[in-house]
Task: structure prediction
Amino acid sequence: MSGGRPERLGRLIADAQLDALIVEGAANLRYLAGYTGSNGLALVRADGGGRFYTDFRYASQVAEEVDDAFECEIVTGELLDAMAGALGAGRVGFDDTRTTVSRRARLGELAAASVELVAAVGLVERMRAVKDEREVELIAAAAALIDELFGWLFGGRLSGRTERELAISLEHEMRLRGASAPSFASIVAGGAHAALPHAQPREAPIEPGTLVTFDIGALVDGYCSDCTRTVAVGEPSGRAREVYEVVLRAQLAGLEAIAPGVSGRDADAQARTVIEQAGYGEFFGHGLGHGVGLEIHEAPRLSRISGEQELVAGNVVTVEPGIYLPGELGVRIEDLTVVRADGPQLLSSFTKELLVLD
Ligand code: ZN
Ligand code: ZN
Result:
């Protein structure tokens, strides 16, 4: 699965005028080397070869998993220390958004004087933003699991159950159906509580006559999904129906904008305009969406501040506008989609009609 990635990274390293790159972070190491353990560090050279560092707990895992492009070293003590001492000479990139100030200082102390440490942000993340078909399959499987779960949950009664109990039973059922874990802490938020976009499930029961937002995702074979549906429990108010309809129109406008060559900012603007024109602009305070893959939030971003960076085929992004009326209600609708040359490919397919449940 990881064949060719170290070589491709090597070319990016050369393009950045570096001799080598220090790679950290579980998702980066899994992507690059196939390693699924928690303690690891890699040094990748511009020729695509590299060295992989871990400790004795992962010795057999490294032997099984790590790509042949790497020589593996089992380290006693700090991985960074072992790597720094072996850096040799040349320009070595490190990600200054991941490396703490103290680790940067330690590297400088231990590396030879002939090593020049250069801040180099996000080379692996840039590769990860463009998924291959195998990755899309895994994300699609994680998304399909959420469709299934919504079907299962919404077939039963919701009123009187607490947000917390609903979240727990969703996460339990998710695991029974093949997820290794939720891909993030599930959000179940009813009534006015749903006006907090990142609401924590409470012990409070779902009240009839309210909207309830479910934002959940599954982790399947290392890949995440992310999907939100808002449903009505009992007959919703006219205002609730109106807000729901605006969010749905914004979500469809956002999806329509998803195409190669469109900037994250422009995609965001397409959905945001619908909400602004309906008079709810100030109640949509977050960005339209984010990339999803080995991590639940990764590149690219779709928001007012994401700049001119353009979407490319193979990006997997969420489209998730919302309207949050403080003290009253919240609505968010979120789909996961693949950017394709011939239009977005939806990975989540659960209905977006406003369901009115018991
Ligand atoms: Zn979500
Ligand atoms: Zn999301």
Observations:
- The radius of gyration is 23 Å.
- The longest helix spans residues 133-154.
- Residues 145 and 177 are 7 Å apart (CA to CA).
